[in-house]
Amino acid sequence: MKSNNYNDKFTYLFEEYSIDKKNIKFLLAVSGGLDSICMFNFFLKNKFNFSVCHCNFNIRKDSKKDLMLVKKLSQRHKINFFSKNFDIKKYARKNKVSLQTEARKQRYEWFDCLLIENHIDLLCTAHHIDDNLETVIYNLSNATGFRGIRGIQVLRGNIFRPLMNFNKNELIDYAQLNNLEWREDSSNKSTKYSRNRIRLKIIPQLKKINNSLEKSVIDTSRNLSEMEKFISFQISKLKKEYVENLENGFKININKWKKKDFNFFLFKEYLNQLGFNYSQSDDIILSYNGISGKYYESEKFKLIIEREFIFLLNKKKNNYKINFSIKKDGTYNLYERNIKFEMINSSSLVLNKNRNVAQLDLKKVKFPLVIRNWKNGDFFKPLGMKKNKKVSDFLIDKKVPNYIKIFQCVILSDNKIVWLIDHQIHDEFKVTNKTEKVLRISIN
Q: How many CB atoms are located within 10 Å of the residue 27 CB?
């Protein structure tokens, strides 16, 4: 009877969040630990359409036993099973992050691939009430803002957490009632990890102060979730008025935004939605009245301050770092434009003063040419001038906005700039009456 009560508790969240149990395909992330094995058993009992995936991070010597348990369980019940080995130590060192951070990044990237490749609707993880409590305390100690202390969401995007109705003791009881087999992760008892210290040391002390700690956190999480909806609504109103969509990102009129959001609370939350942390947001707000051109980066965006505007450029759409060789004539891609190199006789040349065209004396040019982004210290002698000029000074004189400067490229011959693309050629490479052949470069 008790097991049936647990099943009612399990299916409650499906009803609460309008999850179509009969027609949705689920992907269960199963580690082999008690929580995920309970989740597996609930899905099995309810005859849901699900597959199982398992990550082996090869951190513990006995991690292969976890894999074998999950694989055996899936095969026994004829459940589609996926597994992957990860070398997170290598990438954690390379990216200078903790093993936990790198493991989370890589597993969710893999989960996303599995969902797409196998046409699966929802990923399910085995987070529960105790995990939520740990997360809230951890985030509270790391100044993550109200979203951090709101805790783990039951449903976020394509991730569903069906055990968020259960505490750890209930899952232990359920597993024992159903004679489930699971693996114990020895690293869960190590206090060298922050979350373990919270679970093993801090939470027991907090429960001495408030023996209804879990309920208090759940109630607070619900209230903060409602507050988040209200804040998101207010941000959407400001975005409609003061955020302009660009081909490669967004443009924010920060002066006008400020009139409606004087202390920038909503602006900071908007930046947080775009992946900037609160420390970065504070710096951005302090900097916007300062020198133009300062920039900040999140995982997805590059933010540039440009007088009364802030530009947010999509990094995936605009991989602004360019450096490649041109070994012969032909047409090449430069960002979303085409740049064409052609060799013509001077007798058929018609001088073109368009900024998108460069006409150079072919004899003075040495292949391979290099196209790259300009950088501080670059200089050239603009056409008609007798002295060199820094590229940075040239762009300032031309009042080129900082959000465009990051895409500015130069073409070099033998380490010398021959063309500041879209602006001016180097005087030494100009066509003269002695020129026999011309290198014509055009961009559109």
A: 24
Does the structure show a pLDDT above 70 at 75?
yes
CATH class assigned to 323-443: alpha beta
* pLDDT per position as a tens digit, 117-155: 999 999 999 999 999 999 999 888 887 777 778 889 999
Minimal CA–CA distance to 261: which of 235, 229, 289?
235
Phi, psi of 217 (to 5 degrees): -70, -40
What single DSSP character describes residue 141?
T
Identify the band that residue 322 occupies on the pLDDT scale cut at 50, 70 and 90. Answer: confident
Length of the chain: 444
- Alpha carbon 371 to chain centroid distance? 28
pLDDT for position 292: 62
Sign of CA pseudo-dihedral 30, 105, 217, 123:
negative
**pLDDT range class, residue 314, cuts 50, 70, 90:** confident
pLDDT at 347 over 90: no
Query: By percentage, how much of the chain surpasses pLDDT 90?
Result: 62
2-216: CATH superfamily: HUPs (3.40.50.620)
Let me know: does 126 contact 38? Beta carbons within 8 Å.
Answer: yes
SS3 state at 109: helix
Closest CA to 28 of 163, 189, 227: 163
User: Which residue type is seen at 98?
Assistant: S
CA 317 to chain centre: 13
What does DSSP assign to residue 410? E
**Domain range 221-314, CATH class:** alpha beta
In 3D space, the residue among 317, 395, 327 whose CA is nearest the CA of residue 366 turns out to be 327
**52 Cβ neighbours under 8 A, 6+ residues apart:** 27, 28, 30, 40, 70, 73, 74, 79, 80, 81, 82
Omega before 382 within 30 of 0, i.e. cis: no
Delimit the domains of the chain by residue range: 2-216, 221-314, 323-443
Q: Which residues pair with 411 in a beta bridge?
A: 371, 419
